[in-house]
Amino acid sequence: MQEKTILIEKFLARTISKSERRALKKWILQNKDNLTFFKNEIRKRSENTLYHHFDGTEAFQKFLVTVEKNHSKKVNLGNFLRYAAIFIGMLALGFGTFQFFGPELVPITVTLGESPEVAPENNIVITLADGTTQVISPDGKKELLDKAGKIVAQKQVGGLDFRNINDNPKENLVFNEIYVPYGQTFHITLSDGTKVWLNAGTRFKFPQNLNLSSQNRIVFLDGEAFFDVSKDGERPFIVNAENLDVRVLGTEFNVSAYKADGQIATTLVEGSVQVYENSNPDTKILLSPNYQASFTKENGALTKKKVNPQIYIGWMNNRLVIDELSFEQILRKLERTHNVSIINTVESLNKEIYKGEFENESIESILTTIASSTPFTYTIEKNVITISK
User: Fold this and answer.
1) Contact 201, 180 (CB under 8 A)
2) Are 355 and 323 in contact (CB under 8 A)?
3) What is the pLDDT confidence band of residue 42, given thresholds at 50, 70 and 90?
4) How far is it, in rounded angstroms, from Cα 64 to Cα 84?
5) What tens digit of pLDDT does each residue of 335-358 get?
6) 3-class DSSP state for residue 239?
7) Residue 366 exposed, middle or buried by CB count within 10 Å (0-12, 13-18, 19+)
């Protein structure tokens, strides 16, 4: 039993490995006593905290019903694992919209220079430097062509690859802009080999050919992205996110800079980065791995703290880890990941704080799980969810 307690401690600390998680899951599913022990251990560790750590009571009851109904027959494995996952994660939300298909490009008729916002809804849209706009979809051409018919990028699994651009020293440095709508994510390999993963609801502006830049490699972010920057000691890579610049030579880090959020957060996984206000470079903060710089838009404060990076990059692996987020912040994330609009009529819920992990679950199950901790009801009409008492 001591070994299982250690695994539970690791699970709560988010240091549990995949093999240990599988072992813990197998043990929990052996019998009801193990499930009860696991749940009690979670509750004990949450009693004196200020946040809500969901115990998943309603989901637990559903899980028991499933087991009772199938104890003498073949168990419905899909339902069994779906309910069990709620206990293993204590929360079960999914990024079912994180799709790794090989996108191809279908040109659409638009006015030159038209904003991606007016393109067909729920599509990933790229606007090239020459003003042409194209929708990225599973069907169509395997290359991205500009107005002159020149190949700008190649199809890549889950994204686009801009590395095969022919260098022409006489060309000017020009920028493309890509828009990733709510409910989707996307991957780009820039011309210098830098890899960029774009989260839902993100706009990203980048040079079509970074090799034409003799000094800094500058990109612009409105939303969230993870960067694996190709090393170049002569040309720093700079991410501009509203008031903040993130400067690196070659490293891995995440930047969350949604306009609707009150903070811009840079979380370092590997290497080192410099974070500073672009209007005041003297505010520079140097980050080492497992540290995060946060810029508060309201008062202009730039701070640094030690964090677990997995909390902030879980979206890349179809997971959302909530670490002391308010109800309001959670709803904002759900709107992005599930492409819905949420109207909350219960203002008292907005400041409630939660902690936990969501994986592979419908938005209905997510809200029901949260409601088991702080009761509320909700209705769904098309893609609009209304929360009420």
Assistant:
1) yes
2) yes
3) low
4) 10
5) 998 899 999 999 899 888 887 777
6) strand
7) buried
And the tokens for 207?
Answer: 């040079």
Neighbours of 1 (CB within 10 A): 7
Are residues 304 and 369 located together in one domain of the fold?
A: no
Same domain, 157 and 286: yes
Q: Which amino acid is at 156?
A: Q
- Determine phi and psi for 144, rounding to 5 degrees: -95, 120
How many domains is the chain built from?
2
- Whether residues 180 and 230 share a domain: the answer is yes
Structural tokens at position 242: 């509203």
What's the one-letter identity of residue 148?
A
Give the pair of three-digit tokens for residue 104: 């191809």
Alpha-carbon span 271 to 232, nearest angstrom: 13
* Beta-strand relationship, 237-241 and 217-228: parallel
Q: Residue 18 is encoded by which pair of tokens?
A: 């995949």
Question: Which domain, by its residues, includes 78?
Answer: 49-96+318-389
- pLDDT tens profile 239-278: 999 889 999 987 999 999 999 898 999 999 999 999 999 8
Sheet strands side by side (includes 377-381) = 341-344, 384-388, 377-381
CATH of the domain at 352: 3.55.50.30
Domain harbouring 249, CATH code: 2.60.120.1440
Picking from 133-142, 156-165, 208-217, which range would have the lowest pLDDT averaged per residue? 133-142
